[in-house]
Amino acid sequence: MKFIPLLKCFRRGMVFVLMSSGLLISAPIVQEKSKQTKPSELFKRDSNSQIVIPVIGLNLHLFADQKSDVLRKLKFGEPVHFDKDSLESPKEDWIPVKLEDGLSGFIKRSVVRSVPPKQYLSTLLFEAERMIHSKNIDFTAKQEITDTIFTISLNGKFTGDEYIFIRAKAGYFLKKTVDLMNEKGIKPDNDPSTLEFLKHHQTKLLYDYNSGKYYVDSNYFWKLLESYPKTKHSDYAGYLATESMPMADCGVDLKCRLEEMRKGKLRYLYLFPTGNYVNLYTKDLVTSLHSMTKDPDSIPCFTPVGEGIKSEISQMIRYASEIGPREKKQILPHLQILKKECFR
Fold first, then answer.
1. Phi, psi (5° rounding) for residue 69?
2. Which residues on neighbouring strands pair with residue 104, listed in sequence order?
């Protein structure tokens, strides 16, 4: 007797077996039901987690039902806590929560991030940065995100390295939001909410009357890292301080050009001789200084040389004398040329 191999064909969830007799027999595939998490397990998990709201305008429902009344919309990152005292147990896609003002309700589990407490800050800032960088998020939403991060940074729950990290990120989000405002030409005079936003952050902002633009004051970041100089993220704050320096239109004004370098990139090298951005800033400084000193006779040190120029050169030499040896070797010779030409 000759045997014919079985031929299995899969079609639309059925298994078809072609027998030697030529008959086609179908057999149903048994599909396992998705395993439901027990309410007790959900309760335990939610009790040991913190909730991050990664969206704008999440609905807070009265009951664990999509059709139930919406008590109000929640802001991005708004602090909410698992409500252990809720009369209704947590469900597969609903979390009973309580807000800081005491209001209770339910939010969709699938929309939020529930994370261990140690991951709360990193998750919050990751989601905030994702939103800030998104081109699909409008200016008003970015104001809300920035305000939320600043508010959370001052709730007293973060200290040391965590504090400088969230404060630095908050400043960065403010910078990106203000940059967008400048780019879009949004004027606070025509927008009350923007005016209120700027007033709220006025101690951290500078206004350039010539360009009509707002900038985050780099001193916000410098003061932050000076208060916490040896934390894990102080180097990041130094980078933000340097990058927040507005580009000065110095032209051939030597004092202006030297001051810009000293207050920004050279200051970073002085404070963080082994920082992550040392190579980048050293290269930039050497390029700028080389363009100024390659022809000593063209250095604009006209007699009488102002005390402002001399002071800048002296301060830069002092900074450069205390940075890393490799960087010092590249930068100091150019400053010595400036001193020779301007101190005669």
1. -60, 145
2. 98
Q: How far apart are CA 218 and CA 103, in angstroms?
A: 39
Say if residue 304 is preceded by a cis peptide, omega within 30 of 0.
Answer: yes
DSSP state of 215: E
**At 308, phi and psi to the nearest 5?**
-60, -40
Helix (H, G, I), strand (E, B) or coil at 9: strand
CA dihedral for 286, 291, 294, 296, sign (positive or negative): negative
pTM for the full model? Answer: 0.82
CA-CA-CA-CA dihedral for 325, 330, 335, 340, to nearest 10: 100
Taking a C-beta distance cutoff of 8 angstroms, is the pair 257, 311 a contact? no
CB 76 within 8 A of CB 54: yes
CB 233 within 8 A of CB 164: yes
Amino acid 215 reads: Y
Tokens coding 193: 């909410």
Which residues does 45 contact at the CB level (< 8 Å), separation at least 6?
Answer: 37, 114
Amino acid at residue number 68: S
Collapsed DSSP state (helix, strand, coil) of residue 105: strand
pLDDT in tens, 203-257: 999 998 888 999 999 999 999 988 888 888 999 999 999 999 888 788 888 999 9
Task: Give CATH superfamily name and number for 39-115.
Answer: SH3 Domains (2.30.30.40)
Q: 127: which 2 tokens?
A: 């989601």
Measured between alpha carbons, how far is 238 from 219 in angstroms, rounded to an integer? 10
Which tokens in the block code for residue 287? 């390029």
Give the integer Cα–Cα distance in Å for 178 and 231. Answer: 27
> Token pair for residue 215?
């900038």
Closest CA to 273 of 220, 325, 210: 325
> Token pair of 58, please?
């999440």
pLDDT at 81 exceeding the cut of 90: yes
